Every structure is written in C-alpha cells, then in structure tokens.
Amino acid sequence: YIESCKRIKYMFPKGHAVAYVMMAVRIAYFKVYYPEAYYATYFTVRADDFDADLICKGPGAIKAKLDELYELGNKITAKDKGLITVLELSYELYARKLNFLKVDIYISEATKFTIEKEGIRPPIRALEGVGENAAKRIVEARKQG
C-alpha cells in the first residue's frame, strides 16, 4: 500500500487516491464478509434500475436478458446500460447461493431492500410502474390496517 502511494506520480493528490483505495477496501470487505448487507445496500441505492419481475425469476431469466442486451452492442441505451450492471450483480448474487424473495405488499419496505433469513426482499418500489410516493402510500395504508 505504501509502495503504491510512492509510485503515484500524476497530478491526482495522494490523499484523494488514499481515500478511494480505503473506500474500495471497505466495499470489498463487506462484499466478501457481509454479502447480504452489501447487495441489499447496493440495490437500495440503485433501485431505479432494478427490475423485480425479471430478477426474481432467477439466474436463467437474468442470463437470457443479459445475452439479449449484450447483442445490442453499440445500440444500447443509457437505461439498458444501468440495467446490465444490476443484472450482472443479481446474477452474481445467485451464483453466491444467495436468493431474492418476491415483493410482498404485506412485508416489503417502500424503498429499501431488506435482509431476511431466506434471502433479500426487494421493496415495493422495485415493481414496474410503482414509484417512490406510491410505495410509501402503500406502506402507510398497510400500517393503518
């Protein structure tokens, strides 16, 4: 690590480089030792690109969609690029023997992915056509009975 800092010769400040390296180490640590927390947090932050209907179908459906998106080559849209990243991480999650649960209006949070014993449960917002405000209203109505 110290050797790496000594080799940094370009204009990028060494302190900034150290901050990036430390953040990468933290992320890698959580990805290896606390994978459920890592994936739940990552997908909560990237919920806009998460397609719960597709991803909860399992790795076969994810792989088929990835192949379809890769076939587009340079014709791919910015939204599809974001979807590729989410699909790749979802595929990785299944490869690590973790699991997504189905969205449940009685259990799911409005906007956060939650960790349960059986897997990671997507929020209501992850459903196609359900925005953040609608998801919050569903959770509020659920609390009222």
TrEMBL record:
Transmembrane segments: none
Gene3D superfamilies according to UniProt: 1.10.150.870, PolC, middle finger domain
One example of a Gene Ontology biological process annotation: DNA replication
GO molecular function terms noted in the UniProt entry: 3'-5' exonuclease activity; DNA-directed DNA polymerase activity
Keyword set includes Transferase: yes
UniProt entry keywords in alphabetical sequence: Nucleotidyltransferase, Transferase
The keyword Nucleotidyltransferase is assigned to this record: yes
Broadest EC class assigned to this enzyme: transferase
EC number from the UniProt entry: 2.7.7.7
Gene name of this polypeptide: polC
Superkingdom in the source lineage: Bacteria
Name of the protein in question: PolC-type DNA polymerase III
Domain DNA polymerase helix-hairpin-helix motif intervals: 98-144
Alphabetical list of Pfam families matching this protein: HHH_6
